[in-house]
Design brief:
Elements lengths: L1 H10 L1 H25 L10 H13 L7 E6 L8 H12 L5 E3 L1 H4 L11 E7 L17 H16 L4
Antiparallel strand pairs: 1-3, 2-3
């Protein structure tokens, strides 16, 4: 059966090539039309996820920006590391007014890797910008907040290996 199909394709190769070119052009055109109609947003007003996000924003004043995720790694069991626990506390303090969640604040192993050598902390920034005047000074940039978080984590984690 495949041999007969191969002979058919070989005898009509020009028609098959033209068919593939037409299908490729049509596929490109169709993809362009679909992209104009496809709404790629998870925040559709009136839907349950959007309404839950708005309630979270109003109650906790967080949820506008994605969370900052800080990852910690150690050679031993991260759930028993006092240094990692202290580093997570410092990382949360480096982002004043934000909410944070980690293994140490929830007790959930969802924040810990399967081998228990890595853990992460999510820091949810407050709505809007940090207090003070709106500017592009180094104190208000995400890189500045990250540097403070990194320094705090390094002081707490790297002093004990």
């Amino acid at each position: 059966m495949l041999a007969r199909f191969a002979h058919l394709v070989a005898r009509r190769r020009f028609a098959i090539i033209c068919l593939w070119v037409v299908l490729t052009v049509f596929g490109g055109f169709a993809a362009g039309q679909v992209s104009k109609r496809w709404y790629q947003s998870f925040s559709i007003p009136g839907k349950s996820a959007y309404e839950a996000s708005q309630r979270t924003l109003n109650v906790f004043d967080v949820g506008v920006r994605p969370p900052n995720v800080v990852v910690f790694h150690t050679a031993g069991d991260v759930t028993r590391s006092g240094a990692v626990k202290a580093a997570m506390a410092r990382a949360a303090k480096a982002n004043p007014g934000s909410l944070s969640a980690s293994y140490f604040s929830t007790g959930s192993l969802a924040f810990v890797s399967a081998d228990r050598h890595t853990a992460f902390e999510e820091i949810l920034p407050k709505r809007g910008f940090p207090p003070g005047s709106a500017s592009t000074s180094p104190g208000t940039t995400p890189s500045r907040r990250r540097a403070r978080t990194d320094r705090g984590a390094a002081r707490a984690c790297c002093s004990r290996r």
